[in-house]
Each structure stands twice: as structure tokens, then as C-alpha cells.
Design brief:
With 259 residues, the protein is of the alpha/beta class. The chain has 8 helices and 7 strands, in the order βαβαβαβαβαβαααβ. Helix 1 crosses helix 8. The longest helix has 29 residues, at 102-130. It is globular.
């Protein structure tokens, strides 16, 4: 399938590893010029070099902390008017609600809600002017299936989701789409971190924590990041212009609700 985005430009946040990298890889293989991002310059350079081996578009690496105004400015200086914006950032660590102080709430809201909002605000005018824009926010299954130990993630990302739904109604007329990808249990470093957190929280071994992760998924396996990247690439395609304001669960069929 020709996605019709060869030669377009994409800014993919937090893409030196994990699901962000999977999205960057899928887009680059479609001929999109990709700007990737991470905090560690050496790691980012290594990722960029590997990505260029299979990319059909240009790959630019920008070392920056996307949660800060300075980091956002660096990204926008390198890619001021992308056709595609993929918002991504590390999720907050699990924790008991009673233990979460005000400063921690503010930091997570800044990282997982305000940062993507500011990037969208910056790139949206030119997307609307050229009558093409694709915005994909990588959020979490915790938006629709909250858990007691994940209130930070649910709170911040739930707020982003609500803001995006309203905005998507306004910009659809200009061929700008806004969609959210809600991952659950993809085989990335994040799941290793979550397994270690479960070891402490539930007093179990690492092996048991990993086994419980797999058991929690209806497909009885962890997701392949390439599956996630391919879905992102389709949402960014010229063929996805009639799909906006949606929350897509990528969870091996685990989402329990009807709607």
C-alpha cells in the first residue's frame, strides 16, 4: 500500500528507543524525512545511524528534553513546520495515590500533557495553511482503563485526550487529523521497568512479573513494536484523512468495553 506521504516531514518525539523509535522507523521506510529526538546525544546518534540504513527519507537527530521549553524550542528550530507530529514521552512510574506529592503531579502534567499541547500549538497553523497535517499522540491504555497505581498517567493523559477531542473537531476541515494511540504491553524497556515495579509492589520475582504481563493480554503475548509503528504510519498517511479524534487501543484485544 502506498501511504502517499513520501517526501513529507515528521517530528517524532522521544524516539531514540521504544515505541517512538518504532514510529520513526515506519515513517522513514515510507520515505518521510524524520526528525528524531532523545535526551542522550550519544544514544541518539547511534539510533540515527542505524535508522539511516533502512530509511528512504532523511534522518535528523536532535538531542533535547521535550518536557522543557528549551527542548521544545530546539525541536521546533530543527523542524519548524512538520507535516506530521508524533507526540511521545516517557510515562510516569507507578505509585500509590497517597504518596504522590503536589510537585510530582505538576511534573507529570508538564511532561505528559502540557509538552505535547505546546508542540501542537506551535505546528498547527502551518498544517492548516497547507491543508495537510497528521498529529498522533502516544498516550496509554490507562486513559480508558485506569488502575489505582497509575493515577498519574491516567490523570495527565486523560486531560490531553479531552483537549485533543475538542481540537480535532475544529481542524478536520483543513485536512488535519488528531488521533491517539493507546498501547498496552509492548515488548520494550518500559515493560521491563513495569515488571521491576511489580516485583516491589507485589513481592514477586521478575519472572513472575513478566509472566503476569503476558497473561494480562488477551492475545497471550507482548506486542511487537513494529506493529505499533505500522499503525502510526497509517494514521499519518494520506489515506487516513477521514479518521480523526479517535483513541486506538493497541493491546492484543484486551480492552474490555464495548465502546
Amino acid at each position: 500500500m502506498n501511504l502517499g506521504i513520501e517526501g513529507r516531514t515528521a517530528l517524532v518525539c522521544a524516539s531514540s528507543q521504544g515505541l517512538g523509535l518504532a514510529c520513526a522507523q515506519a515513517l522513514a521506510q515510507e520515505g518521510v524525512h524524520v526528525v528524531i529526538n532523545g535526551r542522550e546525544a550519544a544514544k541518539l546518534d547511534t539510533t540515527a545511524a542505524a535508522l539511516r540504513e533502512t530509511a528512504r527519507g532523511n534522518v535528523t537527530a536532535v538531542a533535547a528534553d521535550v518536557t522543557t521549553a528549551d527542548g521544545q524550542a530546539r525541536l521546533l528550530a530543527a523542524c519548524p513546520s512538520p507535516d506530521i507530529l508524533v507526540n511521545n514521552n516517557a510515562g510516569p512510574s507507578p505509585g500509590n495515590f497517597a504518596d504522590i506529592e503536589r510537585d510530582r503531579w505538576l511534573a507529570v502534567i508538564e511532561a505528559n500533557m502540557i509538552a505535547p499541547l505546546m508542540l501542537i500549538r506551535a505546528v498547527l497553523p502551518t498544517m492548516r495553511q497547507r491543508r495537510f497535517g497528521r498529529i498522533v499522540n502516544i498516550t496509554s491504555a490507562m486513559v480508558t482503563t485506569p488502575r489505582p497505581h497509575m493515577t498519574l498517567s491516567s490523570g495527565a493523559r486523560g486531560g490531553l485526550t479531552a483537549a485533543m477531542k475538542g481540537l480535532s473537531l475544529e481542524v478536520a476541515r483543513d485536512n488535519v487529523t488528531i488521533n491517539n494511540l493507546l498501547p498496552e504491553r509492548f515488548d520494550t524497556d518500559r515493560q521491563h521497568q513495569m515488571a521491576k515495579a511489580a516485583m516491589t509492589r507485589e513481592n514477586i520475582s521478575y519472572e513472575e512479573a513478566r509472566a503476569r504481563q503476558i497473561e494480562s493480554i488477551a492475545a497471550k503475548r507482548l506486542g511487537d513494536p513494529r506493529e505499533f509503528g505500522a499503525t502510526c504510519a497509517f494514521l499519518c498517511s494520506a489515506l487516513a484523512g477521514f479518521m480523526s479524534g479517535q483513541n486506538l487501543h493497541l493491546d492484543g484485544g484486551s480492552y474490555p468495553a464495548l465502546i
